Structures
1.
Amino acid sequence: LGPEYVRALAPYQAGKPIAEVAREFGLDESKIIKLASNENPLGMPESARLAMQQAVADIGRYPDANGFDLKAAISAKYGVPQDWITLGNGSNDILELAAHAFVQPKQSVVYAQYGFLVYALATQAVGARAIEVKAKDFGHDLQAMAAAIADDTRLVFIANPNNPTGTFLPAAELEAFLKAVPQHVVVVIDEAYNEYLSADLQYESTDWVRTFPNLIVSRTMSKAYGLAGLRVGFAIGQPGVTDLLNRIRQPFNVNSLAQAAAVAALTDKAFLQKSAEVNAQGYKQLIQAFDSLGLTYVPSYGNFVLVKVGDDDGAGARVNLALLRKGIIVRPVGNYGLPQWLRVTVGLPEENAAFIAALKTILG
Ligand code: PMP
């Protein structure tokens, strides 16, 4: 049953849940350390917890289908009108909506080698053709990507910073790319890890949205805001694009607890700052250890690092399994074509230390 391109889809492989690892390896659940899904090691902000608890009183009612309060909070924060915003059930929802809204079967979608896997899945799910452009230094080669845009290309996905490699594109390069792309091609700049960028690297992509009617900026509440389990993401773009995303989304795609928590988290500057600080320190802790172990890693601008754990193609899977046996969950990236590497999320200092100690033992 179903079209060939749907049957050929490989399901998204998420990080192994803690309970599953505990069962599989006979470990105490409370001792397992998960550094596998680029989650926030601080958990959720207290402000969001309180907002959610209040929202529980109304759980018998449907959520606000238009997410008025949340859009108002996003609008205030980013200085765009509310009809320039579409809410998603996580930013994965936004990525999928973009593929459904702008691409027909057999048309093409451009993204980079080592680009976030959901780009490939969303492309295939609509029966479109993927144009995967070879990476440059583990990141996007924007010139090659602009050159790869074909007559039938309708969508380009770019992650900045990129997952799983952690690479970053400076604002000037991105802006030059946007100028080079024909306006009938929609560009999604996926900024899931934007909040981890230091002040000197920050750029205002929401300003570009005013200039480029074919641009969608995608953001998530799953990372620095600490709300991964609630599933909230959003798209910012001109109404010509956000309205189409809005028409095809499910009417109640963001639930009421998630909306309430997201409003609170968006304005919780102290939590956001702490998340960035904990991440910057933890990142340093990890790369210092990699340096002293003589391990190669890709310098990262996100809340994770890609590290090379061996020279043979079995290395990633082998070291991953050894870590699992010690109760540490990281992410093998063989499915990204990086079988010698592991992606590790930056955790709390003691979590990073436990990971480093385990890795040291395993690598001898
Ligand atoms: N984009 C990128 C680049 C990501 O790494 C992720 C999370 N792994 C997402 C989007 C999706 O996150 P969410 O659906 O939780 O917003």
2.
Amino acid sequence: MSLRHFLTLSDLTKQELENLIKRGSVLRKMQHAGEIYQPFVGRTLGMIFEKSSTRTRISFETGMGQFGGSAIFLSPNDTQLGRGEPLEDSARVISSMVDIIMIRTFGHEKVETFAEYSSVPIINALTDEFHPCQLLADMQTYYEHHGSIENKIVTWVGDGNNMCASYMQAANQFGFELRVAAPYGFEPDPKLMERFSHCVSLVPNVQDAAKDSNLIVTDVWASMGQESEQSTRARRFAPYQVTPSLLDKADPDVVFMHCLPAHRGEEISHDMLDDPRSVVWDEAENRLHAQKALMEFLLKDKIKLSH
Ligand code: CP
Ligand code: NVA
């Protein structure tokens, strides 16, 4: 039995990712049909949150419940993690009791350390550097609306942040062209730009970047932990607001995504989420189905044992 983690999209092969997206879509249909499927009876998910969350917490906790298992919400305020118990020790102890663990934290090295000392799969549920679970939902949503994203044009508008970095990895794994329209000084990590130069380019003019795009995506201007930069960022990012008229420059079949939470009047105009090209509610719901597919994949050996 091989231990697999999901810290970034690069932890899975292109084929595994594609299978996961399709499986997420099947699980969505099963859920909508009211089908009961409980491969995880008696299994437990540990959920470590060092940052706030609505979608991630609800989707993981509900997904585990629908699969017949249970989930434990672990906040640093209520565990010894918040009182300085080393990550290495916490990883050993928590993983000796639960079957799978998801972590939302600050530095990416924290999930790497946790994974190194864990005896069960670790899922990155957002770090300052990456948000791979969101990409599973986004890729599933594109697939459900328009089929394969291979060879399509995706435009990322705004901060070259954790979401953007995961989009860069997705461009490589799913085979699309990614244009990044970020203000000067807020571009993605140059090391990532170099690594993915075959599929990612900087197009600072947002109108040019949007042209012929099949998917336009944006995110908040100030991520969790950057609250003190809110007003500076608001000035710098103002020309990068995504609006229905920006989408008019894109391919006629373009869709709009945003991982949410969204700030109307900042990164999106007040009418953007109500535009028929916005698929954000499907995207949010697909966090549930995509992560169920992910947990099923990471625990497939245990599922075999229980059947
Ligand atoms: N998109 C996302 O991760 O949302 P939450 O912060 O609500 O979990
Ligand atoms: N970039 C955002 C994503 C929130 C889901 C953040 O890190 O706060």
